[in-house]
């Protein structure tokens, strides 16, 4: 073993690992995660208005993934400023909203070309809102946040990193018959171990996870909320990444990621079911409150934008400001919405929906 905590790990082995990967345990966990994921994909197609999920779940994922890196913001602020990241007051909220933007850009990018080092560069650059090239200078390491002592030092030297990224990229698209979920787990370790950027590797790597599942055709929308599992098990996530390096414990790492996929997919399905149910009861309550038959469009806005502005209703329902205002006021009077003021603006909050979004959904077991 040539590994030392404070020495650049230029000997990081290429992927796939030279050990038996699909053990019985891994295969069994893969099957369970695959079926949970397929249920999630179906649930996302079943819901009457999938835009609701696409507008909301990636924000929760962005919040959790950023929190893994101690970038903490409230869901409240995220939804308030969801449509205008520059209006957000705190740098943390801005940064978290950019994570969501980066995820969407990644989605667009893989529509025209396969996942590559460039995808990672693109994603990382959006997270940081400046060009993030592959590391050129030495000095990047993962350290103890208190003592600064090195825990892991990634490979150093631009050519070495570029080389290892080329191996990573090739592995993603030609891995024999490994299951795509196992490929995701292996690729995530490898990406983090290469640590190609000076910062943003964790978040970029977690966006790549979702993109890999989409590229493999296992998910049509970026609605998996995997970072919730990671933030809840952050110490284990860090420990298992390091264990692969120090002890080659691939099976444990892969099982951890597969369990995360299964749990997250199941709890996201539960959330989608709860959203559907709330949509139905809200439809009943809203019926008759507004005149002119714009109920369907209005309802869509209330769920696509849990923090909704008068201008949102004007645009979605194609009505004048007075009409939009009177509809929203009627909903406030009926207790469906709560209005708040943010600066000079009035925001109408679908409180019940917001609470549903942010509450912890339990997986089946
Ligand atoms: N021992 C380790 N080996 C490899 N990667 C690790 C290790 N410990 C943590 N990581 C990864 O490094 C990430 C932090 O790297 P960083 O570049 O600061 O990302 P970000 O800015 O998104 O936080 C963690 O989220 C984790 O994915
Ligand atoms: Mg960081």
How do the strands and helices of this protein lay out in sequence?
Elements: H1 24-46, H2 51-68, H3 75-80, H4 91-112, H5 117-128, E1 142-143, E2 150-152, H6 158-173, H7 180-194, H8 201-215, H9 226-232, H10 234-247, H11 250-286, H12 295-304, E3 307-309, H13 310-317, H14 321-333, E4 338-342, E5 345-349, H15 351-358
Antiparallel strand pairs: 1-2, 3-5, 4-5
This protein binds adenosine-5'-diphosphate (ADP) and magnesium ion.
Magnesium ion binds next to loops.
What would you note in describing this structure?
The protein is mainly α. The protein has 2 domains: 24-270, Fic-like fold, CATH 1.10.3290.10; 288-358, Arc Repressor Mutant, subunit A (Orthogonal Bundle), CATH 1.10.10.10. It is built from 15 helices and 5 strands. The chain has helices spanning 24-46, 51-68, 75-80, 91-112, 117-128, 158-173, 180-194, 201-215, 226-232, 234-247, 250-286, 295-304, 310-317, 321-333, 351-358, and strands spanning 142-143, 150-152, 307-309, 338-342, 345-349. The strands form 2 sheets. Strands 3-5-4 form a 3-stranded antiparallel β-sheet. Strands 1-2 form a two-stranded antiparallel sheet. Helix 10 (234-247) runs antiparallel to helix 11. The longest helix has 37 residues, at 250-286. The radius of gyration is 22 Å and the shape is elongated. The mean pLDDT is 94. Residues 68-69, 142, 151-152, 192-193, 199-203, 205, 238, 241-242, 245 line the site of adenosine-5'-diphosphate.
Helix/strand-derived category reads: mainly alpha
Bound molecules: adenosine-5'-diphosphate, magnesium ion
Find the count of extended strands (DSSP E, 2+ residues).
5
Number of helices: 15
Give unreliable regions as ranges. none
| Amount of helix | 55-70%
Overall structural domain count: 2
Q: Please write the string of helix (H) and strand (E) elements.
A: HHHHHEEHHHHHHHEHHEEH
CATH-level-2 architecture of the largest domain: Orthogonal Bundle
Cα distance spanning the termini? 39 Å
Radius of gyration: 22 Å
